[in-house]
Amino acid sequence: MSPEILHVVPGDTKLIQLIRGPMRDALIYYMRDWLSELSKANWTVNWPLDREAAIERDPTAGKTRLTAKFIHHISDYDNWSVSRDFLIAFPELSGRIRIHD
């Protein structure tokens, strides 16, 4: 199981991470209720490894944190995908955003 986006980026900055590339263009040019659609869109970062490869414990502070490898992976827009249902709300993104079943 991959860490969820809500666990990846704290606070409101999670939206900033998602709003890049074609998604950003659609939000600028087609004003509509995008927040509801983004929150129910079933996003994934397609992490190919297990949870232990994404999360580690800081040996000094004892706090849990994301690994550098996972941060590098989620920083690449091409690793993100969204469910096909998302295209109902944003048909202009067809062919411009990675889709998963």
Strand order of the largest sheet: 1-2
Number of domains as seen in the coordinates: 1
Strand content: 5-15%
What gross morphology would you assign?
elongated
Number of strands: 4
Helix content: 25-40%
Tally of individual helices? 6
> What structural class is derived from the secondary structure elements?
alpha+beta
Q: What is the H-and-E element order? A: HHHHEEHEHE
* Mean of pLDDT: 78
N→C terminal distance: 16 Å
Unreliable spans are: 4-12
Query: How big is the Rg?
Result: 15 Å
What can be said about the biggest beta sheet? 2 strands, antiparallel
Short description:
The protein is an alpha+beta fold and 101 residues long. It has helices spanning 5-8, 13-18, 21-29, 34-39, 68-74, 86-89, and strands spanning 55-57, 64-66, 82-83, 99-100.
